[in-house]
Specification:
By secondary structure, this protein is an alpha+beta fold. The chain folds into 2 domains: 113 residues, Rieske [2Fe-2S] iron-sulphur domain (Rieske Iron-sulfur Protein), CATH 2.102.10; 220 residues, Naphthalene 1,2-dioxygenase Alpha Subunit, Chain A, domain 1 (Alpha-Beta Complex), CATH 3.90.380.10. Helices cover 19% and strands 33% of the residues. Strands 12, 13, 14, 15, 16, 17, 18 and 19 form an 8-stranded antiparallel beta sheet that branches. A 4-stranded antiparallel beta sheet has the order 2-3-4-9, with no helix packed on it. The chain has a 4-stranded antiparallel beta sheet with strand order 5-6-7-8, with no helix packed on it. A hairpin with a 2-residue loop joins strand 18 and strand 19. Helix 1 crosses helix 5. The relative contact order is 0.15. The structure holds FE2/S2 (inorganic) cluster and fe (ii) ion (FE2).
Length: 361
Amino acid sequence: MWLRNCWYVVAWNHEIPAADSPQLFTRTVLGEPVLVYRTQAGELVALEDRCCHRHAPLSVGRREGDCVRCGYHGLKFDPQGQCVEAPGIEIVPAKARVRRYPVAVKNNWVFVWMGEAGRADAALLPDNFSCDSPQWKHKPGYLHYDTPYLLICDNLLDFSHLSYVHEKSLGGSTRIAQSRPVIEPVPGATADWPQMGIKVSRHVNDVPAPPFYQRFRRFDTNLDRWFVYEFLLPGTLLMHSGGRPTGAAPDAAGPSVRLHSCQSLTPETTTTTHYFFQQSHPVDEGDDTVTESIFNSLVGAFNEDRDMITAQHRNIQLNPTLPMMPLAMDAALAQFRRLLETRVQAEHRASTASPPTAATA
Ligand code: FES
Ligand SMILES: [Fe+2]
């Protein structure tokens, strides 16, 4: 159940080698191997990483100018995905080509559009501003999961788990699980997308500072904490969070923590997932050691999530048809799953009513 006509993060921008590098970057998205490289002019190109001849990965071939030559029998492809040379063959068949995907860079995230190329719409790129902002600082992160992406979406849509999975890291209080978040739809950006995702606002007052906060600032009082985020299709979380001394006004001077986090999930296969993440702090609130400390705390906490979700997935696989028990804490994830299902079905209906004319750009 994947949405295809949308952007998926394929990499952090710094992961894609420079134009003059012999290295070729590849990552599988929605079960399709995708090769990403830069032309001499610096433009990003995303091609199917599977030669049309015998399906060898182009990424184990080599760059030749702005083209890529397959390392098996030498077919050469231009940045449009068209084969322009086939050793020993005088006239290259026009249909000798690989798929080219629309690609976009926004604030250091590289996105690929996995559906109909003609429908690629920059307005649907998420506002991951703190990934590249002079006001915010972070260290970029990536984790690989051996679980389906929806189980990780579920996790990010229900922060009650902070009290238990992250008891000794991000959480620190059972009051997080006891609080009830406000859940609202996020309005869509285009007529095609009436709803982009789910907004979750959770405020937890008068709780001890979590161990995570204490690592970069000492608090002698309890805090009022907030987690306000949008979780957008197909799987991007954009969150403002923080804490201030209990009872302090939002604009009061004094110690507080303000963070912005961008996280995105990209299905690799039906059972594996790419997880891109960062948590930013304001540049004038903390030096490099704070940035490093936040990153290390986040990696530690996300490994806690991964251990739990991996164990959950193992159990689900033992008996996949066994029903789960829906509870109040599942409201946001249930709404997100319904929204995704609706969009996937609409996409399916549209594609069966009028088959796409071109899958390539
Ligand atoms: S598999 Fe690429 S040229 Fe044969
Ligand atoms: Fe978590």
